[in-house]
Design brief:
The protein is built from eleven helices and 23 strands. It has helices at 71-76, 97-111, 124-134, 149-159, 184-201, 222-226, 325-339, 364-376, 402-411, 424-429, 440-447, and strands spanning 2-9, 15-16, 32-39, 65-66, 81-82, 86-91, 115-119, 141-145, 163-167, 205-210, 229-234, 241-249, 257-263, 266-269, 288-295, 298-310, 318-321, 346-352, 384-386, 389-390, 396-397, 416-419, 433-436. It has a nine-stranded mixed β-sheet with strand order 8-7-9-10-6-11-12-13-14, sandwiched between helices. The chain has a four-stranded mixed β-sheet with strand order 15-16-18-17. The model has no long low-confidence stretch (mean pLDDT 87). It binds thymidine-5'-diphosphate and magnesium ion (MG). The site of magnesium ion (MG) has 4 residues, from helix 2.
Length: 450
Amino acid sequence: MRNKTTYACQSCGHQTARWMGRCPGCGEWNSLVEETTVVQQKPARGIAGGGPVPVTEITTAEEERYSTGLAELNRVLGGGLVSGSLVLVGGDPGIGKSTLLLQAASAMAGSAGKVLYVSGEESVRQIKMRAERTGALHPELLLMAETDMAVVEKVIKETAPLAVILDSIQTVYHPDVASAPGSVSQVRECTGLLMRLAKGKGIPVFVVGHVTKEGTLAGPRVLEHMVDTVLYFEGDRHQTYRILRTVKNRFGSTNELGIFEMRGAGLAEVTNPSELFLNQREQPVAGSTVVPSLEGTRPLLVEIQALVCPSGFGAPRRMTSGVDYNRVALIMAVLERRVGLRLSAHEAYVSAVGGVKLDEPAADLAIALAVASSFKETPVQDRLVLAGEVGLTGEIRTVAGMDKRLQEAAKLGFKRCIGPPVDKQAAALGIIEYIGVQSLQEAVEAAIGR
Ligand code: TYD
Ligand code: MG
């Protein structure tokens, strides 16, 4: 073994042999930090090895999946936890990551057997108090407060648990690496070790990672590349709803959503989420529309609100929350040029209700109509949903899964939908009045009138 000094970028993980003011990898200034690593003579083997084999001769069993005891968590994992997988749960501090994993750990301990919960953030007494509060007490749930990964490795090998939870990757360190916990080298080394333990012993491992304000995992992207599955836990800390989103999954689809409510006694699963993101109103109001969005396999009705008002001097302010800023800018430009709404001298604020994030283009039409409705100070038709992508020429483009969207809308008492011109699924369904429109102009006329 010998020591090696390198400079590693704390934001992207790029390594250089000498110090530089700016990272050549990601362009970040002042992000290179000196790190000393012990170079092992023989690199540890991961999942590789054995030479080439004809693909037809590899035997596979259906991958083994465990239930985590939380249906919403199983859903985002792609139908349960795959044995030997390494799952990263990211999110802002205080959002509920520890609570979620403690509840899952206890449920797994109840159904499958020994689960090891390692925390570098809290003492075992603190965790026990949380477990009491959330009803997560189970004799097969083992707690350990530890930050030394060499000890963690030893304990995992000795106790042979069915699953391991490590809270959080930024607080643990490997004694062979000289740099501080949370640095790129530490995170890489510790994650690599967990990876080998997970793959080698078939033990699924959950790792918690904190997110910085910019919305990336604190420190290195390296982490996201190494793990099998990345889940983000998000939501407004001041509201009770929490959304668990799949960002990467080697064992299932991404875009899946799991929805929880933070209660006094921990996280409760929300199985019928559409009602959450709608404001119940007697009278329709200007600037509000509803989109039947389809996140992963599940439809979700979300209210979009817009406020458009004349601006004073200078460039008018535009603000969004829960919807993409640039998308809103584009839609407003289309409204201006193709529908003739004079929006350029107006401030605009657009948000998705309830802390949900919408990033599918199917929400375009609802965003456009919320803006147009606020601008004209006229509500859209009552009991109406809108789904469609808006093109630059103002055309309305087809969206996927219209049948699922309409079924959900009908279930929640909506009477009509405005969407792309030909939608065979929509016509065949007949459960809701469907109005196909060619252009944004037509959509505005149909929903608000001239
Ligand atoms: P926590 O799981 O500690 O968040 P993270 O691990 O992501 O930092 O959850 C923190 C918040 O959740 C805390 O502000 C209190 C709240 N909470 C409840 O409302 N009810 C509960 O039963 C628990 C355990 C926490
Ligand atoms: Mg925590």
